[in-house]
Amino acid sequence: MAAAEFAANQLAYPGTDQFDQVRWLKCAEFGVQGLMIPTEYGGAGRSAVEGALTFEGLGLGTSDNGFVFALSSQSFAMQRALVTAGSEEQRRHWLPKLAAGSAIGCFAMSEPEAGSDTGAITTTATLNPDGTYSLNGAKAWVTLSPVADVIVVFATTDPSKGHWGITAFILETDRAGISVGPLQPKMGLNTCPFAEVTFTDCRVGGTDLLGNVGAGGSVFSGAVEAERAFLYAAQMGSMERVINLSIQRARSRQAYGQPIGKFQGISHKIAEMKLRHESARLLIYKAAELYDRGGSMTMAGALAKLQTSEMAVQSALDAMRIHGAAGYTSEAGVEAELRDAIGGLSYSGTSEIARNLIARMLRVDRPIRTARPSKPPEV
Q1: Active site (catalytic) residues
Q2: CA–CA separation, 237 vs 216, rounded Å?
């Protein structure tokens, strides 16, 4: 796989948690950021299936899960919102730059007290007499914000309408009234910078609207639905890499005069890891194929996110057990895989939110309506 080979040669962990602009440009030259951007805006115009395959390869080829996550976040959230809801002027201004790597984009919806509950966001866009809006509020855990040039931000223009009062805006990050907080330390994915973004009387106009006023909830839902499935393609690739590390350990480590892979306690763990990986893979590519066909992928995306994120954690934990005491050390590499995998339980919605969504689509919360007995015919 070309993407896996590229990642192995060009995206090895650099030995520092600093974001690497040089590697970002190398990825753009390879075509990663422009992969799913339409050709008329400087991209390759590839399908969702091809996008998932590419990011699976990147996840397989490098252990730097944070950097691949950063690439995924821009490609599957920020860029998707711009492609689907942006005006022609916005697309022509930003998409070629994003594809070329000369601009970096971020996506800001979550707040300290509002994650999956989008109707609870408190960032406001207040209409001014001259027709502009003033943005005020704070966004939390914004991926790539410390290095971003452009931001898609969601604010409420009518708090009384909840989800239906949200409006999306796209603007450069160096505009007056925007401040990016200090880098937020994390458990893993450390080469992908996170920070809080604060808006203080930040003026935005009609040309900054991403879609229509009040349509921000729809813009967000469409972008995060794609993100929910495809963001985990890279994690699926890392699951395969963890399997390969475990197989190598099982064959090379000797105990009682034989490779530890001969013991069922070890071999069955690896068999389970393979089962988890393949089931996650089928779900992700089902969601990608549905997306390409224009079908509903809400259920498929939620299932793919849930299976991949939870099974990646379990497989990384099993890999640590297979490596024994060595697995607890940084040298073996598997403890970092576990720390990175845990992040997948939260981004694009928690596992609990995914389960709620799946259950709601199965209508488990609705009572069964019994038919009323028909009246006997009148004589």
Answers
A1: 227
A2: 32
Instruction: Look at residue 221 in the predicted model and tell me its pLDDT.
Output: 84
Measured CA to CA, the distance from residue 376 to residue 200 in angstroms comes to 70
Report the C-alpha gap between 261 and 284 in whole angstroms: 30
Query: Whose CA is closest to 66, among 192, 231, 156?
Result: 192
Same domain (yes/no): 255, 330: yes
Q: 3-state SS of 88-103? A: HHHHHHHHHHHHHCCC
Answer whether 171's CB lies under 8 Å from 208's CB.
Answer: yes
In this structure, is the dihedral angle defined by the CA atoms of residues 30, 294, 67 and 239, taken in order, positive or negative?
negative
Confidence of residue 340 (pLDDT cuts 50, 70, 90): very high
The span from the CA of 143 to the CA of 208, in Å, is 21
Q: What is the pTM of this model?
A: 0.92
Q: Return d(Cα 358, Cα 300) in angstroms, integer.
A: 9
Q: Kindly tell me the burial class for residue 55, based on how many C-beta atoms sit within 10 Å of its own C-beta (0-12, 13-18, 19 or more).
A: buried
Angle CA 367–370–371, to nearest 5? 145
Ramachandran sector of residue 45 (left: φ over 0; alpha: ψ -120 to 50; beta: rest): left
63-97 tens-digit pLDDT: 999 999 999 999 999 999 999 999 999 999 999 99
Residue 121 lies in a domain: yes
* Mean of pLDDT values over 156-174: 92
Of 77, 79, 103, 141, whose CA–CA distance to 21 is shortest? 103
String of DSSP letters for 295-360: ---HHHHHHHHHHHHHHHHHHHHHHHHHHGGGGGSTTTSHHHHHHHHHHTTTTTS-HHHHHHHHHH
Q: How many domains does the chain have?
A: 3
Which pair of structure tokens corresponds to residue 243?
A: 């399997």
pLDDT tens by residue, 298-331: 899 999 999 999 999 999 999 999 999 999 999 8
125 and 187 within one domain: yes
DSSP summary character for residue 121? -
Domain that holds residue 296: 232-361
Q: How confident is the model at residue 119 (pLDDT cuts 50, 70, 90)?
A: confident
